[in-house]
Amino acid sequence: MQMSLEQTLDSVREKDPHQPEFHQAVEEVLSTLWPFIEKCKDYQKQGLIERFVEPERIIQFRVPWVDDAGKVHVNRGYRVQMNSAIGPYKGGLRFHPSVNLSVLKFLAFEQVLKNSLTTLPLGGGKGGADFDPKGKSDNEVMRFCQAFMTELYRHIGPETDVPAGDIGVGGREVGYMYGMYRKLRNEVTGTFTGKGLSYGGSILRPEATGYGLIYFVEAMLKTKNKEIAGQKLAISGSGNVAQFTAHKAIELDALVVTMSDSDGVVHNPDGFTMEQWQYLMELKNERRGRISELAKKFNLKFEEGAKPWQYRCDIALPCATQNELDVDDAKTLLDNGCFCISEGANMPLTLEAIHTVQEARILYAPGKASNAGGVAVSGLEMAQNSMRQHWSEAEVDNRLHTIMSCIHKACVSYGKEDEGEYTDYVTGANIAGFVKVADAMLAQGVV
Ligand SMILES: NC(=O)C1=CN([C@@H]2O[C@H](COP(=O)(O)OP(=O)(O)OC[C@H]3O[C@@H](n4cnc5c(N)ncnc54)[C@H](O)[C@@H]3O)[C@@H](O)[C@H]2O)C=CC1
Ligand SMILES: O=C(O)CCC(=O)C(=O)O
């Protein structure tokens, strides 16, 4: 081994001292991979780990746009092309004021391992801008998306880099960006996923991350001879991932007791109904309103500034953003009897929270495994675009089920401790994701 774990982490920290989220993701991954790498001499060759933590390319650019009042704004746009050893860069675009290189590098790094886990030939990337779509008119969002694409279009393509949505980027934004891409490149290809059904999108892509998360939870529960029906679920967020996690859970007779947004949390101890879910969909996706309106409409409790983790639940599904569940939240969940935490968001648990839930030996799945259903169906959208075909809902759902079950199997196969029943899903996901990428990098030489 050329460097120890601590030396490797120190060198990552020293290179980019102002990137705490990236350091956190690298520490989580490398600390679980290290004992495995120490046993496999091959993975100590060719500067593999140093290359693995360094993006292949980062693109940063100016995004000037004009608001409805004629005022010029300048945002910063990025694409982190992290690793293309097993396929074209693939991963979402995030529009949120908190976007910076630290956040995008952590997301791109996680995406490499996640995409490898999907069983599909997808490399990893992530991008976005520090633009806040909240409160902007439809026309302002369109102008911003078009301005963003006038630079990004030259760096992406169906065989190079295929973006999709993430926080602040849904069907509307993908449509505007794809339209501008098509105009500038004068080509109709599957360069985006999450497209509308009328122009090459896959059925079930909007639902895929949330549905896949519930399929993964079902697989985890099965190892304990439990079912999801009747379990109390605390969900955070009310965006794409939270919405379809809640939808599948309600359909399967689980009780979804919380939903939230950055203003606060709505608690419904009896479980949200489909009627309340429909209202939320219209509220968030069409009127783009605040979740407190859901509480008001159905006479439910809304707690401003609060998180869902204080309420009693069996299963916690953080589906909003990074580091939204800290060590105190983890302790509260455990004290209240929560026995399963599965991540819909990327890196929603702090490192300390992860250590706490792992010490308690409850079921705990990292996002790179449990939320991989979204990018998996994106991979299926790319396959359909290449074939110029559309698969049916049953076909896509069936493939999504199979992929989530393969990911679960891979986590158990690398994460099951020698003696006993406990599966360390973090170690399992990290090793299973790493092996495929590492083997491809070694086979292709030092590039
Ligand atoms: N959209 C997708 O297919 C996938 C998304 N993810 C991850 O899932 C998470 C949610 O993404 P989407 O649902 O797509 O985004 P979205 O923009 O549709 O929804 C984000 C949700 O998080 C909430 N939120 C954001 N910041 C918050 C904060 N500081 N406190 C409380 N709530 C906050 C928002 O109010 C909103 O409800 C992100 O971590 C994303 O990276 C992971 C896999 C795939
Ligand atoms: O579908 C995709 O390409 C991106 C999904 C994504 O951004 C994620 O998995 O975090």
From TrEMBL:
Regions of compositional bias (Basic and acidic residues) in chain numbering: 11-20
Keywords assigned: Oxidoreductase
Alphabetical list of Pfam families matching this protein: ELFV_dehydrog, ELFV_dehydrog_N
InterPro entries: Aminoacid_DH-like_N_sf, Glu/Leu/Phe/Val/Trp_DH, Glu/Leu/Phe/Val/Trp_DH_C, Glu/Leu/Phe/Val/Trp_DH_dimer, Glu/Leu/Phe/Val_DH_AS, Glu_DH, Glu_Leu_Phe_Val_DH, NAD(P)-bd_dom_sf
Record's catalysed reaction(s): L-glutamate + NADP(+) + H2O = 2-oxoglutarate + NH4(+) + NADPH + H(+)
SUPFAM superfamilies reported in the protein's UniProt record: Aminoacid dehydrogenase-like, N-terminal domain, NAD(P)-binding Rossmann-fold domains
Domain Glutamate/phenylalanine/leucine/valine/L-tryptophan dehydrogenase C-terminal: 202-445
Residue ranges, annotated region (Disordered): 1-20
Polar residues bias locations: 1-10
Entry similarity comment: Belongs to the Glu/Leu/Phe/Val dehydrogenases family.
Subunit and partners: Homohexamer.
Described function: Catalyzes the reversible oxidative deamination of glutamate to alpha-ketoglutarate and ammonia.
UniProt xrefs under PANTHER family: NADP-SPECIFIC GLUTAMATE DEHYDROGENASE 1-RELATED (PTHR43571:SF1)
The name this protein goes by in its record: Glutamate dehydrogenase
Lineage, opening ranks: Bacteria, Pseudomonadati, Pseudomonadota, Gammaproteobacteria, Oceanospirillales
